[in-house]
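Good day; I would like, with your permission, to put a structural problem before you. What I wish to show you is a protein chain and, alongside it, a tokenised description of its three-dimensional fold. Please examine both parts with care and let me know of anything in them that strikes you as inconsistent. Thank you for your consideration; the sequence and its tokens are set out here:

***
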Amino acid sequence: MSAQPDPVAVPEVSLDDVLAAREELAGVAIATPMEESRWLSALAGGPVRLKCENLQRTGSFKIRGAYLRMSRLSDEEKARGVVAASAGNHAQGVALAAQLLGLRATVFMPEGAPIPKERATRGYGAEVVFHGRWIDEALEAARDFSERTGAVLIHPFDHADVVAGQGTAGLEVLEQAPDVQTVLVPTGGGGLVAGMAVAIKALRPDVHVVGVQAEGAAAWPASLAGGAPQALTSMKTMADGIAVGRPGDVPFRAALRCVDEVVTVSEESLSRALLSLVERAKMVVEPAGAAAVAALLDEPHRWGTPAVAVLSGGNVDPLLLGKVIRHGMAADGRYLFLRVRIPDLPGGLAGLLGTLAESGANVMDVAHERISPVLHLDEVEVRIQLETRGSAHAEAVTTRLRERGYRVVE
């Protein structure tokens, strides 16, 4: 168990800090739009809105905290340059901020970081170095680099300026949705949820602020239960943007005071949420950016409305996007895998395909198996992959096959 951070040594972020941050970020970070979501509202039984930080400069909220932190460096610190560690979003925020401020930037990224995030970071002028599998390992390398070279470490979440900068998104939420009752925020190290909670609770203490983590990288529940940041021993999630093994001390102190709860969502829920956002909201987000919507889809009637779900980032690798969409379609019942026994006679397969055509299912793949100890001499097992319109349609397809006398194994 980690030791309790000394509360005197850990800075506390206040509403005044967030308000000052907003003044300094004017003309740098944009006030991102908020969109009404009719499909989520129908599920939740009340208004649900999407705070579109995926449309922020660099494609995520990170420019808010990165620029504020870097703009406040002394001239001597700026001359030494900056170093950061990031799976991609903080990297781009630091790289753009360095470009705007005329600073030299080096960014350590975990191996396998999304290609678009790497290219964008280089495109803003930063040097990229790959190290480790997770952000925590890249962060250790960045610290070593800082000690060797004197470059100032720009932490992705564990600094009062970073938390205050991210908190400006909370001010915008209250202005764009003054009647809000619940705000759900994707949560990794905690900079965004803590900063937003500080701003929101100071102005509207009745608003319920919820952090949302991927269950395969959920350090916050145990940390909150123990009263101090706890480190995970391993992580496994597609949501690289919130795959952080330990909450930061600064955001943790703010979260203890201002965040009401932290919930977790599965990989299947993240996939469904990402797919739904593409289909229904026409919003491209990364898996981490879909976490708040995943929590809404998991328990649509749990949250008080009007509710706001923060889409924290939209920097997704197209290859990963394709995989996640397919995974989301499977989780949503849009893919159906069946084994069907048919007579080993001319026209047997044609009859099966005809029945499937009548049901409106789209055949994606077919394979035969004739030699098996469980098959009769006059039988063939057909393994078939279908595309359906959803779980109800998939059930209707299976029912129709059985009504026609086919032996079906799902």
Remarks:
- The chain has a mean pLDDT of 91.
- Residues 62-153 form a domain with the Rossmann fold fold (CATH 3.40.50.1100).
- The first helix runs from residue 15 to 25.
